[in-house]
Recover the amino acids of this structure.
């Protein structure tokens, strides 16, 4: 099953009469400065005739140095999406319960459906600022406690709302998970200013942290993500993973990207300035913007699909949020301030 995501296909661009050179993509949430030049060099030096390291050894050691988590607790995947599917296949049997804190990234539900799990969505409401429980996560914890799910998916900061739960709330959810596993998807964690360090919760024994290099390091086309988890979970995930799943270009580019801290810092600063500008400018237009800790903004525009279509016609991609159950909203990924200015000008022209 194909899940709708951001990004615009070459076919749709052609259909809309937009040339790729004139298209600015705000529908994906990726480092606006693109891939690190050292990663590009590493790819250029690669010998594609050799098999990749099947253990992703060097990049796991680099991730271990960066996170302080032991290499035997790190599983590298073909994007964090592969790890989401591996988790579902490994920990859910037909009829098992899985809880998803929603609205959120669509691949959790798709992965759970594939293994015929019983899916329970815990929905947040717009009037609560898309937090799951206005006063904390107590109601969600009580539901988890009652349902005893094998897997719980929490995206933090959440896609598409940008809501970021604090450490105590995540610890409470892990506590409520009991013998189940809490999957904490931190695909956008690098973009959060003063984020708390979730690896300190790995000692609880039932937490899996998912991270991605496809957004902060702009490696979406190569596919690279990783899980930080208890050693037994790491072993079980690796058992289910196809050989050579993480290709040599992804490993080489990942190692070079992790070493290029300066490029990452510049990209994060650029996204942060762009988001601040957008947040102010969109509010000035009278639009309702959900406060976001991530590098994207959820904006209520009335008819998300129509506003997306009109913007695309003018060469701008934004994510229509109907597939999240939010048809009145669009999601805008932060880019440089000059690019964001151009988007705001276009928005002024297309808003009903
Ligand atoms: C919350 C979230 N998790 C995971 C992913 C998948 O990331 P990857 O490219 O590493 O598979 C995405 C991609 O959009 C996402 O938004």
């Amino acid at each position: 099953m194909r899940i709708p995501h951001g990004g615009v296909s070459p076919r749709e661009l052609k259909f809309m009469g937009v040339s790729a050179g004139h298209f600015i993509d705000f529908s994906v949430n990726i480092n606006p400065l693109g891939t690190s030049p050292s990663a590009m060099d590493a790819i250029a030096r690669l010998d594609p005739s050799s098999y990749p390291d099947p253990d992703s050894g060097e990049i796991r050691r680099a991730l271990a140095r960066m996170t302080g988590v032991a290499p035997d607790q790190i599983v590298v995947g073909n994007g964090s999406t592969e790890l989401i599917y591996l988790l579902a296949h490994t920990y859910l049997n037909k009829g098992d319960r899985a809880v998803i804190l929603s609205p959120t990234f669509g691949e959790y539900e798709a992965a759970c459906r594939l293994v015929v799990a019983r899916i329970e969505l815990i929905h947040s409401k717009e009037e609560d600022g898309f937090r799951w429980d206005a006063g904390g996560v107590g109601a969600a914890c009580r539901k988890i406690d009652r349902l005893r799910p094998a897997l719980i998916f929490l995206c933090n900061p959440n896609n598409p709302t940008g809501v970021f739960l604090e450490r105590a709330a995540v610890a409470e959810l892990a506590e409520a998970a009991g013998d189940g596993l809490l999957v904490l998807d931190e695909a956008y964690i690098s973009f959060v200013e003063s984020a708390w360090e979730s690896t300190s919760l790995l000692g609880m024994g039932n937490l899996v942290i998912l991270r991605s290099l496809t957004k902060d390091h702009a490696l979406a086309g190569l596919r690279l993500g990783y899980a930080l988890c208890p050693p037994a979970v790491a072993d079980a995930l690796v058992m289910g993973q196809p050989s050579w799943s993480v290709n040599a270009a992804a490993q080489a580019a990942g190692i070079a990207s992790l070493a290029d801290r300066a490029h990452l810092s510049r990209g994060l600063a650029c996204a942060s300035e762009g988001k601040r500008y957008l947040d102010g400018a969109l509010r000035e237009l009278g639009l309702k913007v959900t406060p976001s800790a991530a590098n994207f903004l959820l904006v209520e525009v009335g008819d998300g699909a129509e506003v997306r279509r009109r913007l695309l016609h003018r060469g701008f991609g934004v994510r229509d949020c109907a597939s999240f159950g939010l048809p009145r909203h669009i999601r805008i990924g932060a880019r440089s301030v000059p690019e964001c200015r151009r988007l705001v000008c276009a928005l002024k022209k297309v808003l009903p």
Notes: Residues 5, 79-81, 105, 155, 159, 185, 187, 212, 214, 220, 225 surround pyridoxal-5'-phosphate (CB under 6 Å).
